[in-house]
Structure to design on (430 residues):
C-alpha cells in the first residue's frame, strides 16, 4: 500500500474532536512549560482545565510578533534546552530576529506535513524536485528537502540564484518539479525562453512560496513554460516554516493543515471573527508544537476562509491566497490600501506584463501622490500604452477609491528577483 501523509480524520466532526484534544494539550503544555505563557494565561483568568470546547479558544490571550522580539533570543520556550535540536530565525529586517526552537518531534511533524504538500500536489516517487529556495538560518530550503525525501521523491537542493546552474540541472537531471518564489519562477521562465531550451527540460509543476504570485505572473510563466500546475505553499517561521498548506490540483483555495493548527480569521481592528468569506487577519494556534507553541498568534497575514467543500473531496478546510499583510497596509489620503488590491486590478486588464511597482511620494505642497509603474505585455504595442494607463487609473479609482498616476513601461524594464520582489516604495518622510 502506498504511504499517505494525509490526516487520519475523515469527517469534520472527527477533525473538531482532534482540534479540541490538541488545544487542551497546547494550553496545558504552555502553562506548565513557559513562565511567559503562564503569566499571560493567569492574567486572562484562564486555567488549562477551563478549556472544554473549541469555543473556549476565544477566552485565550493573543500572542504577537512583539512577544517573540521582546523575549529574544529564546521567547516562549516551553521545553528544557536539552530537548531543543534546531533553531531557525526570521530575517530581522524590522529589528530583532524572531527566533524559534524545535524539538525532534517538531521537526518530524513539520517533515510529515511538508511531505503532505507534495502528495497534495500529485507528485510521485518518480519525480525529481529542484529546490531553488534559500538554505541557512531561514526555514525554507531544508524543509522543502526533508519533506521531499520523506515523501520519496528525489531532491535536487540547488538553492536560489545561479541561473546557469539552474538551467543546466533542469536539462541534465530532467527535474520535473521546481520549488521557488514566484519571482524566481518568472525569472527562470524568461531565462529558459531566452535560451530556447524549453523542449530540453521535463518541468511539469512549480511550487511557489514566500510571496503572493499574481495572476499575471502565473499567466506569463504558463505561457513560457507550459507547466501543468503551479501551486501556492504558505508558511512562516513562527508556524514551523513553509509547508503549512497547499492548494490542490483544482486550485480553489489553499488547504491548510487543520490537524496541526487552528486558523481563525479575525477583523484586524476589532479582533472579532470575520464573517465567512470576508477578508481578515490570520490568527493561528498550534495543536502539537512542543518547543514554542503558539496561542492565538496574530500573523498579520490577510486572507479569507473559503466556504464549502473542495471538489477534491478533502476534509481539510481552505483559505484564499494571501492578499497581503495588515502591517504592509499603505495609508494614502486616508484610504487603507493593500498591495494585493492593486495586483487584483492589474490582473484584470489585458495587455500588461506581470511586474509592477507602487510608488508613494509626498510633494512640496504637503500632499501625498501615488504612481503605479507597470510593464506592458511582451511584444505589446507601445502606442496603446497611454490608453492602458488611463484604463488602469480609472479602475484603481473605481475599485480602490484613490487617484493614482500610471506609467506603462516596456516589458523587461522592471527588475527581476531571485527572492521576493519589492512592490511598494513609500518615499514619504515620517
Amino acid at each position: 500500500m502506498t504511504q499517505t501523509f494525509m490526516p487520519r480524520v475523515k469527517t469534520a466532526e472527527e477533525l473538531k474532536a482532534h482540534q479540541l484534544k490538541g488545544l487542551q494539550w497546547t494550553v496545558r503544555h504552555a502553562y506548565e512549560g513557559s513562565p511567559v505563557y503562564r503569566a499571560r494565561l493567569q492574567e486572562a483568568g484562564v486555567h488549562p482545565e477551563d478549556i472544554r470546547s473549541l469555543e473556549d479558544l476565544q477566552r485565550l490571550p493573543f500572542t504577537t510578533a512583539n512577544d517573540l522580539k521582546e523575549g529574544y533570543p529564546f521567547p516562549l520556550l516551553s521545553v528544557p534546552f536539552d530537548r531543543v535540536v534546531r533553531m531557525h530565525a526570521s530575517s530581522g529586517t524590522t529589528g530583532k530576529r524572531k527566533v524559534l526552537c524545535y524539538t525532534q518531534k517538531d521537526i518530524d511533524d513539520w517533515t510529515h506535513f511538508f511531505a503532505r504538500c507534495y502528495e497534495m500536489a500529485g507528485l510521485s516517487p518518480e519525480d525529481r524536485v529542484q529546490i531553488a529556495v534559500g538554505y541557512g538560518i531561514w526555514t525554507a530550503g531544508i524543509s522543502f528537502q526533508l519533506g521531499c525525501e520523506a515523501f520519496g521523491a528525489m531532491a535536487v537542493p540547488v538553492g536560489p540564484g545561479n541561473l546557469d546552474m539552474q538551467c543546466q540541472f533542469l536539462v541534465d537531471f530532467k527535474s520535473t518539479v521546481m520549488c521557488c518564489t514566484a519571482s524566481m519562477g518568472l525569472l527562470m521562465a524568461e531565462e529558459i525562453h531566452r535560451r530556447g531550451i524549453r523542449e530540453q527540460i521535463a518541468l511539469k509543476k512549480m511550487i511557489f512560496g514566500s510571496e503572493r504570485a499574481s495572476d499575471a505572473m502565473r499567466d506569463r510563466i504558463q505561457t513560457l513554460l507550459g507547466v501543468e500546475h503551479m501551486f501556492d505553499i504558505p508558511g512562516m517561521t513562527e508556524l514551523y516554516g513553509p509547508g503549512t498548506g497547499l492548494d490542490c490540483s483544482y486550485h480553489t483555495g489553499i488547504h491548510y493543515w487543520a490537524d496541526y493548527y487552528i486558523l481563525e480569521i479575525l477583523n484586524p481592528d476589532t479582533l472579532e471573527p470575520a464573517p465567512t468569506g470576508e477578508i481578515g487577519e490570520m490568527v493561528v494556534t498550534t495543536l502539537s508544537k512542543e518547543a514554542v507553541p503558539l496561542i492565538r498568534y496574530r500573523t498579520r497575514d490577510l486572507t479569507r476562509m473559503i466556504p464549502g467543500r473542495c471538489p477534491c473531496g478533502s476534509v481539510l478546510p481552505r483559505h484564499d491566497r494571501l492578499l497581503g499583510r495588515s502591517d504592509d497596509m499603505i495609508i494614502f489620503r486616508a484610504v487603507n490600501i493593500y498591495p494585493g488590491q492593486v495586483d487584483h486590478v492589474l490582473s484584470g486588464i489585458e495587455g500588461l506584463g506581470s511586474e509592477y511597482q507602487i510608488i508613494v511620494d509626498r510633494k512640496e505642497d504637503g500632499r501625498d501622490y501615488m504612481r503605479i509603474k507597470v510593464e506592458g505585455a511582451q511584444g505589446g504595442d507601445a502606442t496603446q500604452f497611454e490608453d492602458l494607463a488611463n484604463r488602469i487609473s480609472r479602475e484603481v479609482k473605481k475599485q480602490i477609491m484613490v487617484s493614482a498616476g500610471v506609467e506603462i513601461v516596456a516589458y523587461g524594464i522592471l527588475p527581476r528577483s531571485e527572492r521576493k520582489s519589492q512592490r511598494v516604495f513609500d518615499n514619504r518622510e515620517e
